[in-house]
Each structure stands twice: as C-alpha cells, then as structure tokens.
Amino acid sequence: MKMQGTSLGSIKKNPALLPLYFCIGLGGLGAFLYTLRLATRSPDVSWLNKKEAEPWNYYKDKQYKFYATKDEYSKSKSPAPEY
After folding, report:
1. Mean pLDDT of 47-72
2. Does the UniProt entry include the keyword Membrane (predicted)?
3. How high is the pLDDT of residue 73?
C-alpha cells in the first residue's frame, strides 16, 4: 500500500499538499545551489591545485563574502598574510 500524497492521483485528491511539496523542493534547490556556490567560489576550496602552486593568492584582492555592505566592501581586503 502506497502512502497518500506520493502519487499523482492522490495529490489531485489532496491539493493542499502542493504548497508543502513546493516548499520542500525550493528548500532542497536552495541548499544545492548554496553548496554549489561554496564549492566553486569559496577560497577554502581549490580545484586548480596542480596548475598554480599557491591557489589562495587568487583571492588576495577579491571580495569573497556572501553579503557585504558598501562600507565593508570598501574596507575589507583578504586577511591573507604576506610571507
């Protein structure tokens, strides 16, 4: 026996479940996109470690915060130390 609300026919009988499925799908999509952003834009992850000996220098003069106000954006630089 199938659970109610898992087949298309039972969703047609119970349309009140549609907002629930929409919110769950939107939350899952948001989590996936944020994880994808972290994997591609974060300075903690290096996908090109064979091409460049020091891949963290790519972010030395870049703003990599997820959200920054104008004041923070103009003041903040990468906290990477100079060696």
Report:
1. 68
2. yes
3. 61
